[in-house]
Amino acid sequence: MKFTDLHLCVSWDNLEQAKRLIAKSAELGYSQIGVPLAHSIREETVDQLRQISAEAGLDLVTRLDLAPRSAGELLTGLRRFRRKFEVVSVFCNSKSVARQAAKDRRVDLLCFRSFDSSKRFFDRAEAELASASSAAFEIDLAQVLSSFESKSGVGVFSRLRREVAIASGFGVPLVISSGASEPLFLRRPRDYAALAFLFGLDESQAKRALSFNPGAIVERSRSKQSEDYVMPGVRLVGGGRGD
Amino acid sequence: MTRVVRRRYLALKVDCDEPLEPSALSDVIWNAVLRLFGEVGASQAGLYLVRFDEKSGVGVLRCFHTALPMVRAAVASITRIGNLKAVVHVLRVAGTLKALSRKEGLVSERSR
Fold first, then answer.
1. Is the CB of A194 less than 8 angstroms away from the CB of B76?
2. Domain layout of chain A by residue ranges
3. Which of A83, A210, A225, B32 has the most crowded CB, counting CB atoms within 10 A?
4. Does A5 have pLDDT greater than 60?
5. Residue in B67, B64, B72, B70 with CA at minimum distance from that of residue B90
6. Is the pTM above the cut of 0.90?
């Protein structure tokens, strides 16, 4: 099984740290990693990261994290940067941003940074919009681990359990990612699947959220960015000269 | 007579900057199970640290097979051992120590 971690927080200005983290990911059994990058990142830096990943036997996926303050800002960000990155995630800090992100087909991942109930907008309406646009709901396990390290996990797990049930009910794909910024935060895919047991995912659902769902997002995005892509369901198959 | 209790043996690898004592690892696993599943859950887990090599950081943990998902989740939730940042990876799970040693070569039967 091919495992993907779509949120590996590699620091692109510290290549030594990046090397260590990427090597650890490869050692733990991942084959594809998504690295959040700044929209202003230089092409050479991305090439360097790609090379480091290739040396470790990993496929690098470029990711952009957008944290807009309004729906308009989100639309501007998507218009400007969507084509430069393979995966686009949106940190939904307000309800209007969450709704806009859920209905926009250019958004791949919906993320919620806080476990505070007033800042999580993944409800049935959000799930319905997301299921129509094929955006996935991302669960960042570094955030889960750090939040219940400092306080009780009761609220975190009950909230996640409810959101996972809503997502499953509406057919919204779930993506589990590490969110790790140092090797000691990384775990094996099977260990993440075991952690997902705490918020109601069985082993097969958890494995799907670690392999098939993120893999499908990357594949869809790459096929959209390929030269023969015209529009959803339409692809250029010939050269246009009758051949 | 058939054995009622089926067990699982987990090969663990601890990643930590400093060497650990077996008791510290045992305590942190017990605390993680207690914290997540309470005293009733912990009493049903049948936890026992069979062995732990401080140098390599590799050890074997035993639990009841019905408690395996609980124990795996608890082990994966560990982020610190004492004041040190640490992570405990589950390398393998097997039904007997012999099978564990056959699978990974991690556990020597003679070292028991």
1. yes
2. 3-225
3. A210
4. yes
5. B72
6. no
